[in-house]
Design brief:
Length: about 350
């Protein structure tokens, strides 16, 4: 099994690295890292068959690059003035790519084919509801842009403490509805249940997760509950980063940058949460973590300490157990598994 890890290229990293996740006698090990794609700033990327789409940086411009793999070949890049996007999503059936740009406040939709990637439409978030925290005072900061289970589009805006829903009609983004988190929440990433009537928002600045019931036909929202991802007595700086839901809809996982941990919640029958575990990432600043298709093997990357940690996941209990730590990988911020 192959694993791809990319991130910042401010120190020693040259781009995206490929590693082997080897399973022998039921035990896993991660190793054999090689730089497979040389790229400036691939902080978030997605793999689609023999293609790879990545955030990229080119001097004073930011955008996305589209690669063929095996052998590696750059198909094309699309750049715009300013910082790179923070998030990239993909719909393989529609051949669409979505990006959210934290710094420029743009949400963008791209189309791709064998010839490359091209811009379809983009909108800019205004500073309509800026929160009270220092990170929010300079404007809107969309950090996520991707699809809901029904194919609508949704963004999370850290600056505005908002979750915004869109539709792509005739090649244009149309705003549909907005849900506001509590002031200072710092809305960052979001996941949905399969029934598409509940969503769970990760609050970067508040170190919280908000459970919301909603109706996509009427755009009515109900704030169900909010939970802290870190201990009540933890007072040092922390920022929630990635959030993932298991495919069976029973567990939620969030990474904590500062507390340097992954928090595990059980999703109860009424969609509220119960704390299951907090486990160290054995490094500093775990921006991302991910799992293989079986959701048994989990890898977390620690951006500031240039290392990764491998866990084994118990699907019944939801808990993580450390298998391997201190795996050297530079400036990792994104993890992608691949069977190829």
């Amino acid at each position: 099994m192959k694993v791809f890890i990319g991130g910042y290229t401010k120190k020693t990293s040259k781009g995206i690295y490929q590693a082997d996740l080897t399973i022998k006698d039921g035990q896993a090990s991660l190793g054999n890292f090689t730089n497979c794609v040389e790229l400036n700033g691939p902080t978030y990327f997605k793999k689609c068959g023999n293609y790879l789409f990545s955030i990229a940086k080119n001097k004073d411009e930011g955008g996305i690059s589209f690669f063929q793999l095996n052998p590696v070949k750059l198909i094309n890049s699309v750049f715009q003035p300013g910082a790179s996007p923070a998030y990239l999503g993909i719909n393989e059936d529609k051949h669409l790519v979505y990006t959210a740009n934290y710094h420029t406040a743009y949400l963008s939709v791209y189309h791709y084919d064998n010839d490359g990637v091209s811009l379809v439409d983009q909108v800019k978030h205004d500073s309509f509801n800026l929160g009270p925290r220092p990170e929010q005072k300079d404007g809107a900061h969309p950090h996520f842009f991707d699809e809901t289970p029904s194919g609508k589009l949704v963004s999370c805006d850290l600056g505005n403490d908002s979750v915004d829903f869109y539709d792509l009609k005739d090649g244009h983004l149309v705003h549909l509805a907005r849900y506001l988190n509590e002031a200072g929440f710092g809305s960052r990433h979001i996941v949905f249940n399969k029934e598409n009537n509940y969503f769970y928002v990760a609050g970067e600045l508040s170190s919280k997760i908000n459970v919301v019931k909603y109706n996509e036909k009427t755009w009515e929202f109900e704030n169900i509950a909010t939970y802290r991802t870190i201990p009540d007595d933890y007072t040092d700086h922390n920022g929630v980063a990635a959030i993932r839901m298991s495919n069976d809809g029973k567990f939620l996982y969030l990474s904590n940058r500062g507390h340097n941990s992954i928090t595990v919640f059980k999703i109860k029958a009424d969609h509220t949460l119960e704390l299951v575990q907090r486990i160290s990432t054995f490094g500093e600043f775990p921006r991302d973590f991910n799992w293989d298709s079986s959701e048994k093997w989990v890898i977390a990357t620690n951006q500031n300490t240039d290392n990764a940690t491998l866990y084994e996941r118990n699907s019944e209990m939801g808990t993580l157990a450390v298998v391997q730590k201190d795996v050297a990988v530079p400036e990792g911020t994104c993890v992608v598994f691949s069977k190829e």
